[in-house]
Amino acid sequence: MSTSHTVQEAGTTKVPAPAARSARRPRTMSFGARLRRDWPLILMCLPAMLLLAVFHYLPALGNIIAFQDYNPFAGDSPVQAFLSSEWIGFGNFQYLFETTAFWDSVRNTLAITAFQLVFYFPIPIALAMLLNGILSPRLRSFVQSVVYLPHFFSWVLVVSLFQMMLGGSGLIAQTAREAGFTAPDFMTNPDTFYFLITSQAIWKDAGWGMIVFLAALAAIDPSLYEAAAADGAGRWRRLWHITLPGLRPVIVLLLILRLGDALNVGFEQFYLQREAVGRDAAEVLDTYVYYQGISVQQWGVGAAAGLFKALIGLLLILGANKVAHKLGEQGIYSKK
Amino acid sequence: MGASTSRRNFLGLVGLGAASLAGTGLVTGCSKKPGSTGSATNAEQAAGVVPTFKDSNLVTPDIKGVSPMADGYVKYPTNLIDAITDKPITSGKPVTATTPWWGPAPPTANKFVEAVGADLGAPINFSIQDGNTYGDKLNTMLGARDVPDLTCIPGWEINKLARFSDGVHVLFEDLTPYLAGDKASAYPLLAGLDTAAWRDSVWGGKLMGVPFPTDSPYPTAFFVRQDVIDQRGVAAPTTLDEVYAFGKKMTNADKGEWAYGDIFQEVLQICGNPGSQNGWFKGADGKVSHRYETPEYKRAVEFMVRVYQDKLIHPELASSKGGDVKTLFKGGKIFAFADGLGGWKEVQREMTKSSPGFNMQAVKVFGADAGKPPTRWSSGATIMWTFIKKGLGKDRVEELLRVLNYTAAPFGTKEYELQNYGVEGTHFTRDASGAPATNDLFSKEFANQFIFLGGRPPVVVSSPDLPNFAKDMLAWGNDATQYLEKNPWEGIKVEVPTEQAAIQQPTDDKITDILRGRRPISDFDKVVAEWKSSGGDKARDFYAKVLADNGR
C-alpha cells in the first residue's frame, strides 16, 4: 500500500501541487514508461508482497472453516478437507453468540482494553518525553535498553517475577511477615486483577512502546524549541505547544490501531493467572476460545471467534479514523 | 501480530460476504450446530484382532509385581541374551520418527542414536518434540497429514487431537493383517506385550498401533520428603484428618516453607472418589453416576477449601500456572505433593547426586477414615502408542514392525541394554555387580528415543545410584493394587460428544472458585445442578448407553 503511494507521488512531482489536489491528475506517462522507470522499486517490494501473500492472504482462505463443522480428515488431502467438511452456515457463530460465557469474556476483554487505554496507553508517551529530556546520550541509551529489555521476556517469566515480588511467598509478603504484618496477596485477588495485569503490561511493554514516540520526538525541529525559549516560553508551555502537537499524529495513529485491537488483550498472561483469580475476573475472549473451541476440538468455533474479532476491530478502526478525520487529524491514512 | 491478524481475517470477511452476519435472528435461521455427537468402539471387536500372547520375559524378577504392577529387579542380570541376531532393517533405508521428550533436546550428532541405528541396520532419524506442547505439534502434523514413518502418541494427548478416530484410519497403517492372532509369531517380542495393552490399541475394530504397556497403572501417588519428616518427628498421614494435621505441622510461612503442592487429585482418591473414566462410575444398583453427585466428592471439596483457607499450599502454586512444583519439592519449600509415578525416579536420581540423604517416598495408600478404603484410579494398560505411516507398502511395514519388535526387547537382553544405557565404555561403565552406571555423555544424548519408539514388557529396575528404588516402588504399588478402581468402560474407546466435553471446563472453573474461597461452599449444590442441566444428564445417558451397547 505504502509503495504504490510513493510511486504515485514520484510520478506527479512535475505537476504543481495545488492543481493536483482539486482536479484529476493528467496522465503524463504511459504504463510502459512508468514501468521502465519504476521497476527497481517494484522489484524491491516483490519479496515483501510475496511474504504477505504466502503467510497472510493465502492462509486467510482457511477462514472458511468458520462456516463448517471442520474435519481435517475429510477427503483425500488437507486441501480437500476444507472443501468436503460439512457446511453448517452460521452454526459456529450461533454456538458463540448463544452462550452467556462468551459475552462475559467479551465484556471482560473490553473492560480490560478500556482500563489499559487509561492506565497503560499514556505511560510510553510519558516515558519517551522523560527520556528525551536526558541530555547525556550514554545514559539515555542505557536507560532505554533497560526499560525495553523486558519486552523480550516471555509471559511465564514476567508472571513469575511478579509472583516473586508480590505473591504470597514473595519478597513483600515475606518481609511483612518478618515484621509481624500480613501483606495482601495481590496475585490471587480478583478485585485488584486489572491493576496487576496492567502493571505487568507496563513493566513488560512500556519501554518497547516508547521507541516509536522517541522517534517522533526526534523528528521535532529543535529550532522550534529555541524560538519558543527565546520568546520566553517556559518548560510547560514548550511541552504543551511544541512537544505534544509534534507527537499528536503518532498518538492518534497508535490510538486508532489500539482500538482496532480492542478484542485482543493477549492470551498467555490470562491463561497463566486464570486459576489464581478465577474465571469471572480473568476470562478474556482468547482464553474462552481456547477452552471452548480449541481444547474441545471445535476449530470452526475458533475461526468464527477470529472473524468476529476482526469484524469488530475493522469497524472500530474505521469509526475511530473517521472521528480523527473530523477532528482534522491525519489518522491511519491521509484523506485527499 | 494483532494488526496482521486483523488484516488476514479481513480478506476472509470480504471474500465470504460476511456482511450478512448482521443479526442473531438470521444467524439462527440457517445453520446447524457444530461438534461431534460422540462415538464408542465395541470392546468385543478387539478380541479377534489382538496378537496371541507369548511370554518373552527372560529374567526371574527379584520382587514379583501384583498385576497390573510390573515386576521389580534389584540385581542386574549378568549374562545378557542377544535376542535379535538378524538386522531388522534390510533395505538400508533410514527410518523417520517423532517422539516427545521433557527436557533439553539431545544433539543431532548423537553416538547413542548412531549405535542403536547400526544395530538396527539403518539410521533412525528422530524428530524430538517438547513433551509439554506435543499435542499442539501433533494436531498440526496430523492435520497436514504429514507424518513420519513412526509416530509416537501418548494416551493423554489422544483426547486433545481433533477427530482422531477419523484421522487414525486416514494416516496410519492397519496392522491387523500383520499381527492379528498367530500372525504375530513373526514378531515374537511384540507377541510378548500384554494382551490388555493390545486390546487398548484397537480403533474401529482394527489394530492400529503398537502399545507401550504401563509399568504401574496409577495416575498419581502422594509423595513426601521422608528424610525431612523423619527428622522433625512428623508421621506421614493415614487419615484425612491427619492430612490436615500434617499440613499444619509442616507449614511454616515465616521460613518460606509450606506443606503441600496441589493435592486435590490425591484427596479425591483418599475420600474414595472414582476417576478412571472422567469421574463416571456404575453404582451397585447399576445406575451410572458422576462423582460430582456423591457425598465423597463434596467431602473432598470441603476439605480442600480448608486447606486453601489455612494456606497449607505453597502460594506460588496457588497463584499461577507457571509455578514448578518439583523445583519447590526438591528445594525443600514443600514437603508433600501429588504426582505421577514416572517422576519419582528422575527426582530421586537428581537429588541423590546433589544432596545425599534426600529421600522421596510414596505414602502407603490410606482412606479418609480408619477402616474406610480409598480408591485408586487406573490410567489403563497403555501409556502411549506408536503408529506406522499408511501406504508405505507391505515390505516397508514389515521392516518397521521388525524395528518395533527390536524395541520390544525385554529386560535381560543386549538390545534392552543398548537402548536403555547406550554403549559400554562410551555411555556407561559397569560397577562391581555388573550393573551399568551411566555418565554425562549419556545424560546429554539420551532422550528416551528408543524407549518411546515402541513398548516392551514393563519392569521396575533399581540402579547402582538408586539401590532401593524397585523395592520402594513395588511395595507401594503392590499394596495399592487392592484399591484399584474397576472401570466398567475399560477397553472401550469412548469419544464424548463435543457438547458434553465443553461443560467440563466451566464446571472445573466453578469448583476451583469454591476451592480457592472465591465462592461459598454452599454454592456447591448449585454448581452440580448447573452441570446436570447443561449437559451432565445427557452425558450420563451417553455413558450408560455405551455400557448397554457393550453388554456390560
What features would you highlight for this structure?
heterodimer; A: about 325 residues; mainly alpha; two-stranded antiparallel sheet; 2 strands; disordered N terminus; B: about 550 residues; alpha+beta; 2 domains; three-stranded antiparallel beta sheet; about 40% helix
Model description:
The complex is a heterodimer of chains A (336) and B (552). In chain A, helix 5 (91-97) crosses helix 17 (299-326) and helix 13 (235-260) runs antiparallel to helix 17. Chain A has a domain at 92-326: MetI-like (MetI-like fold), CATH 1.10.3720.10. Chain A has helices spanning 2-11, 17-22, 31-60, 78-84, 91-97, 100-119, 122-132, 137-148, 155-166, 171-178, 193-218, 222-230, 235-260, 268-277, 279-282, 285-294, 299-326, and strands at residues 68-69, 86-87. Chain A has 336 residues and is mainly alpha-helical. A two-stranded antiparallel sheet of chain A has the order 1-2. Chain A is 70% helix and 1% strand. Chain A has 17 helices and 2 strands. Residues 1-23 of chain A have low confidence and may be disordered. With 552 residues, chain B is α+β, with helices and mostly antiparallel strands. Chain B has 2 domains: 47-81 and 90-215 and 381-464, D-Maltodextrin-Binding Protein, domain 2; 221-377 and 487-549, D-Maltodextrin-Binding Protein, domain 2. In chain B, 39% of the residues lie in helices and 12% in strands. Chain B contains 24 helices and 18 strands. Chain B has a 5-stranded mixed beta sheet with strand order 4-3-5-14-8. In chain B, strands 12-9-13 form a 3-stranded antiparallel beta sheet, sandwiched between helices. Chain B has a two-stranded antiparallel ribbon with strand order 1-18. In chain B, strand 6 and strand 7 form a beta hairpin. In chain B, helix 23 (504-515) runs antiparallel to helix 24 (524-549). The longest helix of chain B has 26 residues, at 524-549. Mean pLDDT of chain B is 88; it is low at 1-29. Classes of the chains: A mainly alpha (336), B alpha+beta (552). Chains A and B meet through helix 3, strand 1, helix 5, helix 9 and helix 10 of A and helix 1, helix 2, helix 7, helix 14 and helix 23 of B.
